[in-house]
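Lay summary. Proteins are chains of building blocks that fold into shapes, and those shapes determine what they do. In this project we predict the shape from the chain. Here is one chain we studied, written as its sequence of building blocks.
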Amino acid sequence: MEDLLQVGVITTTHGIRGEVKVYPTTDDVHRFEELESVLLDTGKEYRELKIKSVKYFKQYAILKFKGIDNINDIEKYSFDNVKNGYFEALTRDWQPIADMRLSEKDANEHKTMNTHLHIIEPYTNLYRVCGDERLRERIANLLHIFREKILDRSTGHLQLFFDDDWNSKYSIISFGHDIEASWLLHEAASVSAALRQPKQERLRLLP
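And here is the predicted shape, written in a compact code that computers can read:
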């Protein structure tokens, strides 16, 4: 990869609308207004984030990235408060939808392993940035769901599709998802545990 210029460091979230507070490391703080996207260094990879809006607060730039929105909407509308977990799909205005499949090969069920995997991944990265206790609790619950509902202890594989009561409705094994989940769940557990430690302890626990 060509040489990169560091333009800022994310210090924390800003409010609950998906904005982050960035401490500029560039001489021209207004450089952000000229950028269409930036690369986020997660410590393991670079992720491209497209900038939706820029504003300023004191010495900080407040950035909103496309596709990163209010997590409260997910918890309010998609979380099953009765039977736990997150619903597979809803309409654009958060109403129930008859066909919840992402593709024709999927089973049309209320809950899936894949959706839970792709909720715990961004929750982990957001918690890495802001350390919000509510996020840590959500991550802990997702880990519980994987351990108690999604993992088939008799085979060691993850089950893929479930009805509303968490009964498995699909017998096919997805080795790719097993592999992906192994490191995403380990990362979620490690990050959420590490950030609860005193700062001097975090240095030993975080990569």
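What the prediction tells us: The first strand starts at residue 8 and ends at 14.
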